[in-house]
Amino acid sequence: MNDLERLQGTWTQSRFEENGVIDPPDVHGGNGAITTIEGNTFAVRLDDGELLLAGRFILDASTTPRSITWIDSMGDDAGKLLPASYELDGDSFVFIAGDEGMPRPVEFVTSPGLTLRGFVRRSAP
Q1: CA of 42: how far to CAs of 4, 69, 79, 85, 86, in Å?
Q2: Each residue of 112-123: pLDDT tens digit?
Q3: Structural domains of the chain in order of their starting residue, each with its CATH number
Q4: Global pTM?
Q5: Do residues 65 and 57 make contact, with C-beta atoms less than 8 angstroms apart?
Q6: Residue 13 to residue 15: CA distance in whole angstroms
Q7: Which residues, at least 6 apart from 120, have a Cβ–Cβ distance to it below 8 Å?
Q8: Which of 113, 117, 120, 122 is the most buried (most CB within 10 A)?
Q9: Would you call 107 exposed, middle or buried from its count of C-beta atoms within 10 A (0-12, 13-18, 19+)?
Q10: What is the distance between the alpha carbons of residues 34 and 124, in angstroms, rounded to a whole number?
């Protein structure tokens, strides 16, 4: 099974860091927000179903660390190519993303312009 196949499904955010700060206010839902991945698209919702963010992504598992480029379809970053790296291990998914135009981050530590999100696979009800 390749990484794209392994990412399919529903994930709950369990970790958030931005600009070097752990658990700052999060306009995209914060810990507990639900991310659904279908094909190469994603949607982030609150428990009540409110859509907070959506878009698509491009994976490249051949790089070290593995690369993902996020392309939001709504919000402040709509249409921007956000370079990121990711780790996918069983039911755990973590990525660190930079702002558009930044080099792809290769360490999973935040500093200005970098956002890190961690997820756990959500069990079916």
Answers
A1: 12, 12, 14, 16, 15
A2: 999 999 999 986
A3: 3-121 (2.40.128.20)
A4: 0.93
A5: no
A6: 6
A7: 11, 12, 14, 91, 92, 93
A8: 117
A9: exposed
A10: 12
